[in-house]
Amino acid sequence: MFSKAAKFVVKTIDQNIIDIVDDDSEYVREARCEEDEIQEEAVRGTMLGLYRDQDFSTQRGEKILGGDLYDPAIKWLRPHEICENPQFYSAGDNEDGAVASQFDVVQGSLGDCWMLAAMAILSQNEDMLHRVAPPQSFDPEDGYDGKFKFTFWQYGKWIDVTIDDRLPTRNGSLIFTQSSTTNEFWTALLEKAYAKMHGNYKALEGGHGSEAMTDFTGGICDYIEWKKGDCDAEEQYELICDAVRDSALITTAIQAQSRADMERKRGDGLIVGHAYSITGAGVYNGSGKENGKRYHLLKLRNPWGACEWTGDFSDKSGRWDEYEMEAKDDGEFYISANDWAQHFTKIEVCRVDPEDFQTEGDWKNESELLEWSNKNGTAGGCRNFSTFCTNPYKVVHLDGGNYSDQILISLQQIYKRSDRQKGKKLLAVGFEVYKVDEDTGDLASMIEGNEPIHSATFVARRDYTKSLMCAKYGGGCFLVVPSTFKQDEESEFFLRIFSEHSPNKSRSQDCDGDEDGWF
Q1: Where would you tag: which of 167, 253, 264, 380 has the fewest CB atoms within 10 A of its CB?
Q2: What is the pLDDT of residue 91?
Q3: Phi, psi of 385 (to 5 degrees)
Q4: CA 116/CA 276 separation, integer angstroms
Q5: Which residues participate in catalysis according to the annotation?
């Protein structure tokens, strides 16, 4: 444990103390200063005056941990109290020298694998990662004051979240997310900032990878699920290859059928009800008796940082012996696309750029914050109710033809995850889409006698996205009506609609990578 105050540069500044924090065993007589000014004095070898986040205060551990996570034995320590020479990013054992990698993400005792699977993929794209977690320092000469800033996308805009660097520990070790490199802390701090944005750590338990991937990128997520054994391996493999090439974020899971099934370890090493990152895809060329045979593989990672697939193409399957690959139980493994399709039941794909969706034209983006409200008479519910026509709606236009025949719709209900602890649940939401002659301003008259070209499958998820091919309907006006399934249910929601139009520039034609080996 590093606690030598001499490591820190101490300067005298004007102090304007407005409150005194209660004494505790770690920080004796530490003061909170107006506008985060630092009271720079040392008591018992500890540098005092480092930033303390009053909005997410560790003095109220029960509140920021939430629910049954609270334990009075938990100690909140800063990284320099946990190890020597703490780093925000550390290349560590990364073979390519990258500042971050998927191996920096190791799940602790918090059930937030859905977020960590997204974080692991985020680490592979430095530009996207630094947008969320810009490089920061623990060196006072570089401005370290205990304050760290992160940025997340929330319903159409990027927001800053500031935290202090006190982290929950037991016996001097982190209890939640940590890095495989012991002095690296970007993952633990990012998790804390994300917990603050959502209310507390407890709020991060359970979720869909699409939520975190959208919050980390502002991208648009496809949620694709199927019954076990009904997955078309070739079709989904091609989709994954396209997504990997486009730097999309991808998670996958075997959906649990009951609460008792959650995070159950199977005999083949796979975990049920648990999110995995898809970190790569490629072709394995057989040799020896299998010379000339090709296997399409996916590379997956378990955010536990351990517990891997033990079947064909696993680390110890013998497939890799000639490559002299060291078998490591680090959570990352290969699996054939056929085996993956047989065992897994969903993927979530987050594309950062709508141009990455298959299209021949360019996208025009329209977005708006709207509301289902009883007060405003806009909580009409689904088509089963006579009040359906009171829902908010949007009209978009397509020109028709190959370059303007697609609509991409992304619906997000605005939901604070910590509200689950108060009994508030996600609403079942969806949308209907109609082809109409013109926008008359009256929803009832526009849809009278008109059947929708798309009827929603209502889902209790925060994010719902659908891409619609409209070629057979020609050009004209298309009406999008988002709604809750039940009548009189209230929520704000953020609606993004991308309509395809004739391109201003030609798009490059990329191969699918099938012949090119590993991505």
Answers
A1: 264
A2: 73
A3: -110, 145
A4: 9
A5: 113, 274, 302
Fill in the DSSP letter of residue 508: P
On whether the CB atoms of residues 152 and 197 are closer than 8 A, the answer is yes
Residue 331: which domain range?
219-351
Domain contains 25: yes
pLDDT band (50, 70, 90) for residue 402? confident
Single-letter residue type at 490: E
DSSP-derived secondary structure letter, 45: T
Q: Calculate the average pLDDT of the chain.
A: 85
Q: How big is the chain, counted in residues?
A: 519
The total domain count for the chain is 3
Provide φ and ψ at 36, rounded to 5°. Answer: 65, 20
**pTM for the whole thing?**
0.84
pLDDT confidence band for 504 (50 / 70 / 90): low
What pLDDT was estimated at residue 35?
36
Distance separating alpha carbons of residues 164 and 145, to the nearest angstrom: 9
Dihedral of CA atoms 405, 410, 411, 416 in degrees, nearest 10, equals 180
Q: What is the CB-side half-sphere exposure of residue 211 using CA atoms within 13 A?
A: 23
Looking at residue 48, its pLDDT comes to 59
